[in-house]
């Protein structure tokens, strides 16, 4: 039986994880509770869609759950953790916030509290997140099993050190947005060529999907790019424009800027 879980926060990422749990458990989420401070309409939506249980004040339910997932922005963690410090009785605390690692959690919570950090992306909603995760100093086998259950519900995962997650947040968590921006630009350009938005979206989405399937064969991106790029041909001309415009360097800068922001959000 799935352990009882309390989600504090009801945003998109919380919903993505709940959706994964919903699929994994055949729609049975009777042990899942959710609380959201400012948006009752959002809670009602999630209750109706996933049949989770709505909680007006998470403090009222905290002693009835075994796992607490903090699905709140980084800057809200200190006040929630301070309130939680006086109430928890060795529950397993998991955060999904950028920049909030186990060291941060353990600073605010009672000594020997089991904690963990997982960084999924929104592909969790369709079971294809690439989630980074790590543990605090007091996690036991049962907590690792709980974490495995959560991770398997939303896709693939990779165990990292706390520092590695700080460094890789931009890759697994934020880089999908970079990809979506690329796709958006290609769709817009296709539409400008006289194709309907619907057809443009279908063409570009399938192109991206096929490209990802090719990457999953294990071939190097450079090799795949070379297969498409005939020297002196049309694709080569497009690649030349991207390189001259600093495409690769801009992506590197975007990754570094994302990591810098993620590290500074809880300072």
TrEMBL record:
Domain named Pyrroline-5-carboxylate reductase dimerisation: which ranges?
162-263
The UniProt entry lists the main location of this chain as: cytoplasm
The Pyrroline-5-carboxylate reductase catalytic N-terminal domain covers 5-99
Query: According to its UniProt record, which reaction does this protein catalyse?
Result: L-proline + NADP(+) = (S)-1-pyrroline-5-carboxylate + NADPH + 2 H(+); L-proline + NAD(+) = (S)-1-pyrroline-5-carboxylate + NADH + 2 H(+)
Write down the PROSITE patterns for this protein, in alphabetical order.
P5CR (PS00521)
Q: Does the keyword Transmembrane apply?
A: no
Per the UniProt record, which EC number(s) apply here? 1.5.1.2
Record keywords: Amino-acid biosynthesis, Cytoplasm, NADP, Oxidoreductase, Proline biosynthesis
Q: Which region is the signal sequence?
A: none
Which GO molecular-function terms appear in the entry?
A: pyrroline-5-carboxylate reductase activity
InterPro entries named among the record's database cross-references:
6-PGluconate_DH-like_C_sf, NAD(P)-bd_dom_sf, P5C_Rdtase_cat_N, P5CR-like_CS, P5CR_dimer, Pyrroline-COOH_reductase
Pathway(s) it belongs to: Amino-acid biosynthesis; L-proline biosynthesis; L-proline from L-glutamate 5-semialdehyde: step 1/1
Compartment(s) where it occurs, according to its Swiss-Prot or TrEMBL record: Cytoplasm
Q: Which family does it belong to?
A: Belongs to the pyrroline-5-carboxylate reductase family.
The record's function comment reads:
Catalyzes the reduction of 1-pyrroline-5-carboxylate (PCA) to L-proline.
- The name on file for this protein is Pyrroline-5-carboxylate reductase
* Organism annotation: Metabacillus niabensis
